[in-house]
Amino acid sequence: MKILFLACLSPKTGNHTTAERIRSHIESAGHTCELRDAADFQSPAEVANLISRNPPFEAALAIHLFRAGRLLLDIQVPFGVIFGGTDINEDVKVEKKRVVMEQVLLKARFAVAFTDKLKEEAELFLLSQSSKIYVQPQGIRSEVTENFCWTDFLRSSGLSSEPVDELRVFLLVCGLRRVKDPLYLLHVFSEWHCENPLNVLVIIGPKIDPVLTAEVEAFVQRTAGVFLAQERSQQELHAAMKRCSAVVNSSVSEGMSAAILEAMDLGVPVLARDIPGNAAVVQHEFTGLLYSSPQEFVHQSQRLLSDPALRERVVRNGKLYVEECHGLKQERETYQQLWMPWPFSLGECWRSNVEKVVNWTLFLLLVGEWMDSLCIGLFLMEPTQLIGESVTEARQLGLLDKEAVLSVPMSMTVVVVWESCWTGLPGTLITSSASVPSHTQSCLCPVGSWP
Q: Where in the numbering of this chain does the Glycosyl transferase family domain appear (predicted)?
């Protein structure tokens, strides 16, 4: 399958790293996945034109419902979306953006949230079917370059203190953009540095917002104890993280911070701002420390520096947490399975409609080949127009490209939906009273146990 993958690809950002990793998962399943920067396209029409070129793309994927997802609204192939974080946490507050994101989510074949909280927020603020949103935490892989000099790194960042090994370096890893709020801690940290000059804060990350970058640079120039490092490669960044006293997060909003998880994987304590995205991965005093104000940041930092047992506990538990919950194997399997045409796409089609009706029971089963057709069983509490709506949706999504049989128990209506594989004629809806074929009954399985 040839898949178009749209994401915001600013160099050396978490989004870029995540997109490259997911592309690798998809391609390892034998698909062709072309990763493109959403910023290269001005309208959905441009993407639709790209999709239809020869050889055409057969599917699409996007990270961020608004920035990338809106560009998929005009395409005629199935697509999925991955929540970025700011789309669900921030963009939903803007009515025009929220309406567009609802359209994207309604048309998407599936959606992926990094946390249960993000899924809950999407269900609360957007018109979405819960069944099409999967929760898959980010997989983490940290790599440390062997040719890294800590002293050179600090000196190139503006630190001239000797010896550097005595410094307690707090590393604020973030792209310079408003949602990361890099200015949040600087004034209070500088005051703390004046009390103890060994405590220093180094900001490192790509310069994304030119205006904010200028503000940060100006603040650093006139403020003691705060420094701005040049952005580095992923391997060099991880090497710097491994040498620092703690990795800091000060974001206003996060989907799931890769830097926090990478720090845990590297065995480095984390100090994170207490926001939903961070609290989903940082359990206070167990896998890291949370703070809700600059003053509390200083307090938690002092605890971390003065309490070796606390430091050892959060480092140990953080690393175990990443190993257990953020492995690459599970992430790879999820993204590979989401592209399986059967039974995922058809099952989600039926489930998304049935959930609109209260107190209905839906079961899906795949019974294999029967007279050159694929047989699907749909079991409902009572017959309804909903079945016809499901058929219409399935046909619009291009799912009825083979003969399909939908059956319900004896007291219900038997619905047979077929579409000729040989003539290409439109499908037909036939209803009658009958019992479920005996060969399907043993295959019954509840939705909750569906793969």
A: 165-319
